[in-house]
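Exercise 7.
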Amino acid sequence: MISANAKYWIWLTLALGYNNPKVKRIFELYSDIADFYLGRENEWRICGIFSQNDIAKLSKASIDDAQNIINRCNELNYSIVCIDDETYPQCLYNIDTPPALIYVDGHLPDVDNQFSIGIVGTRRATQYGLKNSYKFAYALSKYGIIIVSGGALGVDGASHRGSLAADGVTVCVRGCGLNCKYLAENADIRRTIPRKGAVISEYPPDETPRNYYFPARNRIISALSNGILIIESGVKSGSLITANLALEQGKDVFALLGNNSPQNEGSNNRIKEGSAIPVTDFMDILNEYDNLYATNGEVDFSAINLEDILAAPVKGARHLQERRIYLNENKKSTLEKEPKQILKTQKDAENNKTAQISEHKIIEHKKNLDLPNIAQKVYDYIGNEPVHIDRISNDLNIPMFKVLTALTMLEMKGLVTALQGRKYILK
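Solution. The predicted structure, written as tokens, is:
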């Protein structure tokens, strides 16, 4: 659906660009954007918002170009949600620079009244990052939570795939036009998402990406999300921009505990400085919102297809196209053209890791570590058998948040390993 005023808002973005705070000022001053357009230069000067350079840009911009974009959207079956439409999300309007409009492929969910989590992270994700992105999105989707991400390689793509595999609703926010072929590796999920969720952008359908579009795109991801989960983030990662925006918007920020690799340096630093809540399991997120969700349910991960996780494209790695995503959880996603040898190597690595854990190799506690008192108690308690974090807290009579802090330190120092299900073991 496209409103009659859409052409005026498109005209405004063509004139002044995107991510412009003056959009919100105009909306607040004019009950009808058409009056602003028809008032021309005298009106633009009187309103007191614009510089002479702005007025020159407004005068130069063509309403015909805006109409051509609407025609293109009709041709591609995209809808447009404008800032003055009833369906425009209030959470978007609340930020300093709300987009004048968003182009939508699919069905934009009611993000104002449904809970959502944004998942962001590196494009160069490791297998650890891919698996956790996928599993967090899968599990949270099972609880009816909307998954928001940016459709990029690595963490973003794995998160969208996990939500789709759980028959969940996911929103992909692009840093280019909806019809742009950029990131063809994830074209399969962009085709699938609109069946229940939406692929959205503030840029016209055929707009190609520019470097500064992506940081601007991040403000929309954080605005649409009640909380942001960082999975594998370097110190200069764009996902940290999203985290900063989320904090500015009063949102919760979570970060997956990781090892000391460069992929985790940024997210681990956020945990250490206290600006991100450490998580090892999706239940850690649900527990933060226990007034909204029951926390005693279990998610069956056996339906997850390993091939679908490993198929998520990563920056710097070659991947063949035409993967298939199913929305029905009972149908496992398949890899149509994945090289068998690569997949076999990945499976062998996974099996070897499992075998190493099952061998129960005796690992001795290290001495003279000069750890804080609580961290030392937690370290001494953890042994060669996986132990759940709840048991650590209960047996040692230490509050959960202090146990989490201690475990974070121990993981950073390479003394313990976090396993699935919030369990820990000596490393």
